[in-house]
Amino acid sequence: MDSRLPMGVDPDTQFARLRTHLDEHGFSDIVIRKLSGYPAAQTSVDAPLVQAAMGVFSKWANITSVMPRIGGSAPFYQFTERLDLPLVFNGLGHGSGAHGPNEYMLIYPHKDSKVAGLADIEKSYVDLLFALAEPTDQE
Known about the structure:
The protein has 139 residues and is an all-alpha fold. It has helices at residues 11-24, 48-61, 77-82, 118-133, and strands at residues 95-96, 104-105. It is 36% helix and 3% strand. Helix 2 (48-61) crosses helix 4. The longest helix is centred in the C-terminal third of the chain and has 16 residues, at 118-133.
């Protein structure tokens, strides 16, 4: 069983609650083993990194959609909690089939396509670094 926990929920506490629930309902014979676990992570939309990413997306794609959570999981808290660094996922290209044998990413999209190819994606990352380095009104 895989659980993706919301912000503020401790994996060890949830594991203990699951064991207690099973025991209280007559399922003490079920063996559960924790293979791994980590808390959720998030970065404020007001963080300079997020604002810079939104600006770059507006420039390159003329769209800005902010999704505070993603469906996948990984130990992102290593950045946000342990290192106290902002973290943002972004990308302009198109791909599908993540982690599967049919995973792909467009390198050279059709000339009339509005999807970015690899060269434009790389340029957008450079723009993101420049946008993040620019002084803000708060400094």
